[in-house]
Amino acid sequence: MNKLNFVMAYAMATLVAPKREEKGATIVEYALVIGLISLVLLVSWAALGPKISSMVDGINFGGSAPAAT
C-alpha cells in the first residue's frame, strides 16, 4: 500500500507541476525539422534530377511538331 501511495503522489505531482517554458526547445525542434526536410529534398533532387530532366526532354509539347499537309 505504501508503494501505491508513493506512485500516486508522484503521478499527481508530475501532472499538476507547473509547466516549463519550452519556447527555446520548440525553435530548435523546428530548425531540426526544416534542416532534415531540406536535406531530404537536396538528396532526392540530386538523385532524381537527371532522370526527370531526360524524361521531360522527351516530351513534345506541340510547339515543334511538323505541320499536317
What does this structure look like?
With 69 residues, this protein is mainly α. The protein is rod-shaped. It is built from two helices and no strands. It has a domain at 19-57.
Question: Which terms would index this structure?
Answer:
69 residues; mainly alpha
Task: Please provide a brief summary of the model.
The protein is mostly helical. The chain is 72% helix and 0% strand.
Query: What's the mean pLDDT score?
Result: 78
Cα-atom radius of gyration: 29 Å
By helix and strand content, what is the structural category?
Answer: mainly alpha
The fraction of residues in strands falls at under 5%
The count of helical stretches stands at 2
Query: Can you tell me the residue ranges where pLDDT is under 50 for at least 5 consecutive residues?
Result: none
State the shape. Answer: rod-shaped
How helical, in percent, are the residues?
over 70%
How many DSSP E strands? 0
Largest sheet: none
SSE string, helices as H and strands as E: HH
- From the N-terminal CA to the C-terminal CA, the straight-line distance is 97 Å
Write the layout of secondary structure elements.
Elements: H1 2-16, H2 23-57
